[in-house]
Amino acid sequence: MEYWPEFVNKYPELDMQQWAIREYAKQMVDEGVSSSRQIQSGIAKACKQQYRPRPTEFAKLCKPTPEELGIPSLREAYDEVIARRGRFKGKDFEFSHRAVELVDERVGHRVYQMRDADFMELFKGEYEYWVGRAMTGDLPEAKKALEYSTPKKPVIDSYVAKHGKPMLGDDLVSQKIKELGMLVSRKRQAHISTPDDKVA
Fold first, then answer.
1. Which of 24, 26, 162, 170 is deepest in the core (most CB within 10 A)?
2. Measured between alpha carbons, how far apart are the two ends of the chain, in Å?
3. Contact 130, 66 (CB under 8 A)
4. Longest dimension (CA), the chain
5. Sequential pLDDT tens for the chain (200 residues)
6. d(CA 62, CA 46)
7. Which H, E and C letters describe 93-112, residue by residue?
8. Half-sphere exposure at residue 71, Cβ-oriented, CA atoms within 13 angstroms
9. What are the helix (H) ranges across the chain?
């Protein structure tokens, strides 16, 4: 490994090397670096730099970037949410990443209520929050929506269409229903015939 000779030159004594290794390990723990894959990624990035990174810089190199996770940039995510709330409003829409979908769920509706600059500031804070959660692998799963089914004709309408209007009998309840129906019909007809008289 090409880094080791440089490390030994910088820290020639064993005590200094152990101190430096402890410092690197501490910074990696503080940054949440926990897998060998993350460390290998950090080493690969560090080897491409002109100067070797300090422990804090190295720990940050071990963490994946938003681009490596497939998260679009702030501007691309902003444009995506604007398109979802504008051009694709009410239509099926697939977000490029779950983090952008979460930003839209939390603050996307505010685009209608805020000035552009204010919305961008709110959007940026929410975007940074969800990108941070994505980088630690802590994004919540999408909730399944209830299945939509087209409304069916009301039961009464379908019954009347199939069997015709129910016939009222000669009993007391049927007579009352007939009287109420006629009264409602007369009042409605009177209101329709002379609407100006009713407005006074």
1. 24
2. 95
3. no
4. 111
5. 455 677 777 778 888 888 888 888 888 888 878 778 888 888 888 888 877 788 888 888 888 888 888 899 999 999 999 999 888 888 888 899 999 999 999 999 998 999 999 999 999 999 999 998 888 778 888 877 777 666 666 666 676 677 666 666 777 877 888 888 888 888 888 877 665 555 54
6. 9
7. CCCCCHHHHHHHHHHHHHHH
8. 24
9. 3-10, 14-30, 36-48, 55-62, 74-85, 98-107, 116-135, 155-163, 172-193, 195-198
| Rg from Cα positions in the chain | 34
- Tokens read off for 106: 């939390």
Amino acid letter at 10?
K
